[in-house]
Design a protein that fits this description.
With 194 residues, the protein is an all-alpha fold. 81% of the residues lie in helices and 0% in strands.
Length: 194
């Protein structure tokens, strides 16, 4: 082999080493940034964390397949995106806390209203529908304390997803019983729903 070919081969290898190190640094920086917010984001807004963790995973896969430029490009903006996400996480936590406080007042009140109506249900309800509503009530009485406990233990987003699903089921039961299930019924009010 000629000395010129050897020099070109050495330069090509050196260039690959530089690209690999640059990609490794970019991935490490992105991984560190994502790790710094991972716990909080998982708690309040896991859907905002997912694209960032995917970008880091994809970059690691590109690095493993020796596509160093692609690996670096996949995570270049991740630290900036993490910085933009931090205030959103604070706001998401505040919003979830406010939503939970409202539901924590409204859910027991509305379950009590459902219980009262179940004692003397409308005659227009079929037995099947009445049995279904009683099942909804019974499951809600068990589910709500568990949801509240989950929220208070820190799994805010997960708990609120379950809380809103429960709210929908209880609202359907309320309407079937002739109760109002509007914003007023689910607001943070002292009055009983009609």
């Amino acid at each position: 082999m000629s000395p010129r070919v050897l020099v070109l081969a050495a330069l090509a290898l050196a260039g690959c080493g530089g690209a690999k190190k640059a990609a490794e640094r970019a991935i490490a920086s992105a991984d560190s940034a994502v790790s710094a917010i991972s716990a909080e984001a998982s708690r309040v807004a896991p859907e905002l964390l997912q694209p960032l963790t995917t970008a880091v995973s994809d970059a690691k896969a590109s690095l493993a397949s020796k596509d160093y430029e692609k690996a670096a490009a996949q995570v270049t903006d991740v630290p900036a995106r993490v910085a933009e996400l931090e205030p959103k996480l604070d706001q998401a936590a505040k919003d979830l806390a406010a939503d939970f406080a409202t539901l924590n007042e409204a859910m027991p009140r509305n379950l009590e209203a459902v219980k009262a109506k179940l004692a003397k249900p409308p005659r227009s309800l079929s037995r099947e529908r009445l049995t279904e509503i009683k099942g909804t009530y019974d499951s809600a009485m068990v589910a709500w304390p568990a949801i509240a406990q989950e929220f208070q233990s820190g799994a805010m987003a997960s708990a609120m997803g379950k809380a809103f699903a429960l709210k929908t089921r209880v609202s359907e039961a309320m309407v079937a019983l002739g109760l109002s299930a509007d914003g007023k019924a689910w607001g943070n009010l002292i009055t009983q729903p009609k």
